[in-house]
Design a protein that fits this description.
0% strand, mainly alpha, 249 residues, 12 helices
Length: 249
């Protein structure tokens, strides 16, 4: 009860402060909250700034800052909406590249948690819906603003995402092979070779293609694929097969 009273009093005090606050004071408070790591409170302060002083210089800067506050507060939908709104309303703004960058970061695939690391969970086997959206945002940033200060990091993340998408296609292809759907497996491998050429999954795509061709009775195509593998890869390029954490054999 005591904690509840303190929280309510704090909220009321904050609202009371905003009644007579200026745009500068609200923005200063929000910026300090960002520095202190209280991102949810910072987001609320920026929202208050936008509501009370929408045409101020501080509010214009706040529309950029609030994206980061939402992102760090793990408020994914709000961060994406703020970035999309800024891009739509300010297509020629000198900082619009930052909006694309934050959007890419929000969608960027999270790192494995402690339990996933403990059981060696293969993240590539999970549907990469957000990975595609992240890649698209970073691609737009690099395409439209190649000289942006965020472009180098975006390019590195795009390489990771590209390999991640290729790995998932290989995972699905293996699933089809295990169930005898060889044509479907070939289509997945074709996507890897055409869309993600040069990725570490390229050899796997060729190996699965060769196996699928043989299962379908297309020996000539299988032999040609084997020749491509032999000409471009060595035995040391064969990746180690990971066993699922729940299998002891």
């Amino acid at each position: 009860m005591i904690l509840l009273c303190v929280a309510v009093a704090g909220c009321n005090h904050s609202r009371k402060d905003d009644t007579n606050a200026t745009a500068t004071s609200i923005y200063t408070r929000a910026h300090k909250q960002i520095l202190d790591g209280t991102y949810e409170q910072a987001a609320k302060s920026y929202e208050s700034l936008e509501a009370r002083f929408p045409f101020s210089n501080e509010a214009r800067q706040g529309r950029l800052d609030i994206m980061y506050a939402y992102y760090r507060a793990h408020q994914k939908e709000q961060a994406i909406d703020a970035a999309d709104t800024f891009i739509r309303e300010n297509p020629t703004h000198p900082r619009v590249d930052y909006a694309y960058y934050i959007k890419g970061l929000v969608y960027f695939e999270r790192s494995p948690n402690a339990f996933e690391k403990m059981f060696d969970v293969d993240m590539s086997q999970r549907p990469p819906g957000d990975a595609r959206k992240s890649f698209e945002a970073f691609f737009r940033l690099v395409q439209l603003f190649p000289q942006s200060e965020y472009a180098p990091d975006a390019r590195q993340r795009m390489v990771y995402l590209r390999n991640r998408l290729a790995e998932y296609e290989i995972h699905v292809a293996r699933y089809y092979v295990a169930r005898g759907a060889y044509v479907a497996a070939l289509n997945r491998c074709k996507s890897v070779l055409e869309l993600y050429d040069g990725s570490p999954s390229e050899r796997d795509a060729l190996v699965i293609s060769s196996e699928s061709y043989r299962k379908l009775g297309m020996s000539d195509l299988a032999d040609q694929t084997d020749q491509v593998i032999a000409a471009n890869f060595t035995v040391s390029d064969v990746p180690a097969v990971k066993k699922p954490w729940w299998r002891a054999w």
